[in-house]
Each structure stands twice: as structure tokens, then as C-alpha cells.
Please model this.
Amino acid sequence: FETQHCITLPECKNLPLSALLIEPVSRIPRYVLLFKELLKYTDMTHPDYPHIKKALDDVSNIAQLHNERKRASEERNAVLRVYLSLLPEQQVEIEMDSFM
Model:
């Protein structure tokens, strides 16, 4: 499945594959903002208030977990790049093959 093929499909809305893959992740912060705004305009005595609050708490926790895991992944990649830069070029090819 090629990126160019995806762009030509009507359901892809002329977006490259990379944009479509990041879309679900980019929704998480939007949900946090949505629930914050909804909570701000919902009276505390309204029966939906605790449900909206729980949804905000849950989505906020998911966003925080995602950010922590992304940061950890970036740190691992940085360490890997340093490690691979210290190896002779031939050894790097062998090491990269073991990751595949």
C-alpha cells in the first residue's frame, strides 16, 4: 500500500498516509479541550456533571500516558542513535538487522 495510492482515494480526502495515521492521536487533546469546555458550562447540580468530569479525567489520563510513552520512546531512540554511532559501520548493519 503506497502513500500516493492513499492520496488518490476519495475517503483519504487528499491527505497523505502519514497524516491519516496521526489523526487518531491528535484527537486526544481535542477531547480534553472539549470536555473542559463542556464542564465549564455545565452546572454542578446537573445530573450529567459527574459523567462529564469522569470523562475529562479519563481522557486527561490517557493524554498524559500517551505523552509519557512518547517521551520514553524518543529517549530510547536517542540512546539507540548514540549507541549505533559508536559502532563500526559494518557492526551497525548487523545490529539493525537484529531489530527487524
Summary: The radius of gyration is 21 Å.
